[in-house]
């Protein structure tokens, strides 16, 4: 599992940790007001909202869940 809180946008985070995940890795990212905008390039994801907080949840990048930068 890879988690982050206010680190960077999703594409930058994937680049930073590219050698630490595979298609089975679960990502849980605490995102801000641009959560939906950042996730739009993921094919499969879930955004969980609790009050003002938004969390993006998805499995590692694979052909089924690719990310277009």
What can you see in these coordinates?
There is one protein chain. By secondary structure, this protein is an alpha+beta fold. The protein is built from two helices and four strands. The protein has a four-stranded mixed β-sheet. Helix 1 (10-16) links the parallel strand 1 and strand 2 (26-31). It starts with a strand and ends in a 10-residue tail after the last strand. The model has no long low-confidence stretch (mean pLDDT 85).
Please give the structural blueprint.
Layout: E1 2-5, H1 10-16, E2 26-31, H2 35-39, E3 46-50, E4 53-59
Parallel strand pairs: 1-2
Antiparallel strand pairs: 2-4, 3-4
What number is the mean pLDDT? 85
Number of helices: 2
Read across the widest sheet, the strand sequence of neighbours is: 1-2-4-3
Distance between the first and last residues' Cα: 22 Å
Estimated share of beta-strand residues: 25-35%
Question: Tell me, what's the shape?
Answer: globular
- Assembly classification: single chain
Largest sheet: 4 strands, mixed
Level of helix content? Answer: 10-25%
Please tell me how large the radius of gyration is. 11 Å
């Amino acid at each position: 599992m890879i988690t982050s809180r206010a680190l960077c946008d999703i594409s930058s985070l994937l680049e930073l940790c590219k050698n630490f995940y595979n298609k089975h890795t679960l990502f849980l990212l605490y995102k801000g007001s641009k959560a939906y905008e950042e996730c739009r390039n993921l094919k499969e994801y879930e955004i969980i909202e609790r009050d003002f907080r938004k969390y993006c949840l998805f499995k590692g990048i694979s052909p089924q869940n690719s990310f277009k930068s």
